[in-house]
Fold each of these.
Amino acid sequence: MKKTVLMFATAALAALSLSAVAGNKVSAATKDTTAKITLTADKTSGDKSGDLQLVSAPGFDFGSVELKADTDTTADADGDTTLSVLNPGLAEGWGVTAKATEFTGASGKLSGAVLSLTTTRDAKTEAEGATSADISKDGSTVLNATFGARKNSDGYVGVGTSNSTAKAHISVPAGNVTGDYSSTITWTLTADPATETPADGTNK
């Protein structure tokens, strides 16, 4: 009889323990924490200002070209040159314009001469591939990158160093005279404050 009672008491105690465990409720099983980092613009390159920088811009040498009497005289500049822009990590787009003065020399102005530029863009800019523009005294956009336009394997468009290849072509109308002529090309880099990161934080 005693043995039976003890067995019953032990079984009852085990049942009560299981019931107590099953009845407990879990509170605050998950918790959110934060990982932080502050990124500042790279100041190790260029003028170390952390700003947009026009790192390099090309000049062009067409060499000595035989002037045609009754048709346009055309020539391509020797070699390829690099137009380089650095965005050290700023969330903004940018653009480069070029404008050229008239070709002048000891013989006067080179009347009607057209200087054109073909720029082969890299993955850092708005659109890859070659684009062409005539460079006049009023200025033309030769390179641009709209931040937030899309995202490529190298990161956001317009961020980092963009090295684009530039080729120049000149066309001189008939009626001009021989001589040495030159033009000054002014390259201007400007930020584009209108660009912004898309709401989902990605470029498409």
Amino acid sequence: LRNMFKANPDVYDGILIDCKGEAFSASTEFVDGVEKTVHPDMSVKAEKLNTQSATPLKEATEVSQEVKAAVIDYCKANDEIKKAYILQTVRQGENKPTPVYILDFDDKTHTKTLFDGLAAAIKKALKQGETIGMMPAYDKFASVAVENSTPVYVKE
């Protein structure tokens, strides 16, 4: 139903279903609400990484090819991004590694825009409940980490 509504937004306001004499109406808003409940959007929450208590950043070992491809595609589509790294850390209170995406770009005023775009680009490749970190390469902690790391993307 959702696909039918999305394909023809000017035609449908909802649908009426007659099930053995009982009428049930479903508006487009209702169908969208069900879709969001079944497949919730990824929530992006800015949270400063406590660099004092986190383990050092190192090369990521548990990144799916789908996520890696999404990162590379996003970087290729953005001229500002010079390099991208996928590292990992273990946050305080956690026992499994969290991937940290580090983008190297010049204009610090575009940090939020670039990170929001990256989050949107990779959200379909992430597993439900998976957390990620993002850092600009100009961050002191990140700049030290990338010195001896191999980028997953380098602008040509």
Amino acid sequence: MAASADSAQAAGTPAVEEQSNESRFPHSASLYVGDLSKDVIEAELYNFFNSFGATVQSVRVCRDMVTQTSLGYGYVNFATPEDAAKVYEAANFEELKGQPVRIMFSERDPTKRRSGVGNIFIKNLSAEVDNKALYDTFRVFGTVLSCRVLYDQEGNSRGIAFVQYEDAEVAKQVIAQVNDKKILDKVVKVEAYKPRRQRMLEAEETQKNFTNVFFKNVAADISDEDIMKEFENFGEIESKVLKSHDQFGRYGFVAYKDTADAQKAVSELNDKPLGADGTKLYVARAQRKSERMGRLRREFERRRTEMRAKYKDANLYIKNFSEDVTEDELRKMFEAYGTIVSVRVVKDRDGQSRQFGFVLFSSEEEATRAIQEMNGRMTADGKPLYVSRFRNKEERAQEVQRQRMMTAQNMQYQQWMTQQGGGMPPMGFNPMQQMSMQAQMAGRSGPQHGMPPMQTPMMATPNNAQQPSAAAAAPAELSAAKDKNSRNAVLGNPLFSLVQAQQPKHAPKITGMLLDQPDEAVLEYLENPAALKAALDQAYKVLVEQAPAAGKQ
């Protein structure tokens, strides 16, 4: 859609003369890239930004530490701030793999990121206003550093957005000129952004100094006049309303002139028995919907935390069962091992089983028995059932870190043992020597970075000495790597061997592409054949797509 400057004019916003890139943008050579498709890899991100004619120095797609799946955002570093500004203007909201990207200047100073200076909050936005329309509408006032429309899980606009200007004075002018003006079909509210801490303090102050009271649970034999008289006894009332609901009965609001009167009414009327059957009246400070929902979410989180603590080692994760297994059938499979609190089979949006689920026992001992008896048992589909204790995302990440630390410690010990009598066998061909001469840029145009071959002492190895694999040694050696060349040498040797076995023709280029990813991802490729296979398939696809373009050039 195009709500751009035309929308701004409709809202009473004046057109402003465009400024040059040099004067409009901050001196930052790094861009944040959001709203990325989850299957975008570093090579694709590099090629996308490189196509805008600026010198890209490096790119990074941020990933989950455990699963290595994309988090949907990343960073791109350019040679100069001018290049970053040029690409910010040209690439913002352009599509990458069918999805518009949202670009902001990267601010490395956390105090500036959290200050909220120049940041405005907009609400009651039309659902037709997307990120690009928001940017085009508000850029006419001055340099926009970032802008964002908030969406729910279904992809629908929540009608609220944030826009941050480089100049705080410009932000004040926007608030004055656009607040209570119409953008498309809705009158918007524009105000200064308030940090969460400030909002919480203001909310606490509102809670102390309230004058609005909410009541419900009115006895059936109490008349409207009598219920209102109960509230009139506590002070002067500015307004009042009484409503009725088919399911919840009568409820209403009373606005007092004085805070003390409202507080006294809540204190004395809440839980007061009224009517012939002694129905207790509910009276409390009136709350906005957002406040009520926030309170409900906090209560839900509190109860969930309590449940997790209570049943920490009694919750089991089960996978590989047949897709036609129901929750009742899953319960029957495990009920012989103890008292089951709950059972859940996870399903997709179409209601089809994803062939994994959870069984919660009443005690850790019962869960342990279930694991011992059921883990590895063959299912009707001929697959071994997988049963283990459920661990959340943070706990799994900690477990992976502990395992890697143990691997590093074991390798240090084995290396010490090697020095006592063992050694690395002589090597005739070092694959990294080839890599240092060939492209590490995944077929991309731009500066190439060679990796020096790893220098390894050549010593004889006794036949009975077990030497660690290069892949297993990587975590320990990586911790000692002090610069990029050392890091590339440590990870590149074992990675090249694995890549060459599956993609001998493109091994140097693909290895270079994979080495551009975070250490955690490369270590995962060394240790997990399935993860490596998926990465190789993606990298090969990118190389194939680039081949026609390279031929034309």
